[in-house]
Design goal:
- There is one protein chain.
- About 45% of the residues lie in helices and about 15% in strands.
- The longest helix has 17 residues.
- It folds into two domains: about 140 residues, 3-Layer(aba) Sandwich (Rossmann fold), CATH 3.40.50.1860; about 110 residues, Rossmann fold (3-Layer(aba) Sandwich).
- It is an alpha/beta fold and about 270 residues long.
- α1 packs across α10, α2 packs across α3 and α8 packs across α9.
- The chain is globular.
- The strands form two sheets. The chain has a six-stranded parallel sheet, sandwiched between helices. It has a four-stranded parallel sheet with strand order 6-5-7-8, with helices on both faces.
- It binds D-glutamic acid.
- D-glutamic acid binds next to α3.
């Protein structure tokens, strides 16, 4: 009996990771949870992000998953050690694969990281990169407006290019040759970002990176039977379904709302 792989994100952005995994693992059963009731995680404190991530992981563990993919960069950057305490199954965040891909790509050892405020504040990418390439020079910038632009479907609107220019012009002055898209939503803006930074800068997509990484740790159990998909959210299924169909170029068949909040307490 096949066990599913669980994937969670703060919302819809993790579907970029789901899409990359689905492409590489057609035979796997996948369960996706998007915490749409509490998105965005980016501006929240580490304690809150950890609390939410633990609840999300518990829900997926209850579904009998064999591996957990933390598609959210913000969760991956602060919550992984806490999630690993919950279970013995493999738990994979996006930071390690993204950092490994950045180190492989850079020639001049000058690497840019863009992500949410939480991800940038944690310095998780720059620590993971320097562990692998101590002489690397890493520049990080939070780009909070990228998330609402993508959620609004404005990737091709002129405002997208203006915002990209505003956030990334200081980064370009640093002569980086590699830029990590350290947020689930950013791959959906990659055409605008690439146009602005130019072809000499290699974009590292954490969605592709994690899917490549997974191939090494998850043995293929291909049995000729295509895997199934289940999607869960904590709020607003209708909005999720609309954005999801844009990201995935298809409609979701199985989408349900769940409540994760078993208990509330005062600190
Ligand atoms: N999923 C988040 C991430 O990758 C972006 C959206 C949010 O702020 O929750 O960091």
């Amino acid at each position: 009996m096949k066990k599913p792989i669980g994937i969670f994100d703060s919302g819809v952005g993790g579907l970029t990771v789901y899409k990359a995994i689905r492409r590489s693992f057609p035979e796997e059963d996948l369960i996706y949870f998007g915490d749409t009731a509490r998105v965005p995680y980016g501006p929240k404190s580490p304690n809150t992000i950890i609390e939410y991530s633990v609840q999300n992981a518990r829900f997926l563990l209850q579904q009998g998953i064999k591996a957990l993919i933390v598609a959210c960069n913000t969760s991956s950057s602060v919550a992984l050690p806490y999630l690993k305490e919950l279970t013995d199954i493999p738990i994979i965040g996006v930071i390690e694969p993204g950092s490994e891909a950045a180190v492989k790509s850079t020639k001049n050892k000058r690497i840019g990281i863009i992500g949410t405020e939480g991800t940038v504040r944690s310095e998780a990418y720059s620590k993971a990169i320097k562990l692998r390439l101590p002489e690397a020079v890493v520049f990080s910038t939070a780009c909070p407006l990228f998330v609402p632009i993508v959620e609004e479907g404005w990737q091709d609107h002129k405002i997208a290019l203006q915002v990209v220019e505003e956030y990334l012009s200081p980064m370009l002055d640093k002569k980086i040759d590699t830029l990590v898209l350290g947020c689930t939503h950013y791959p959906l803006l990659s055409h605008v970002i690439q146009k602005y930074v130019g072809d000499d800068v290699c974009l590292v997509d954490s969605a592709d990176a994690i899917s490549e990484y997974l191939k090494n740790i998850l043995p293929s159990e291909y049995d000729g039977i295509l895997g199934t998909d289940k999607f869960f959210v904590s709020d607003n299924e209708a909005k999720f379904a609309v954005i999801a169909s844009r990201i995935l170029d298809s409609n979701l068949n199985t989408l349900k709302r769940v409540r994760l909040f078993e208990s509330w307490f005062i600190d």
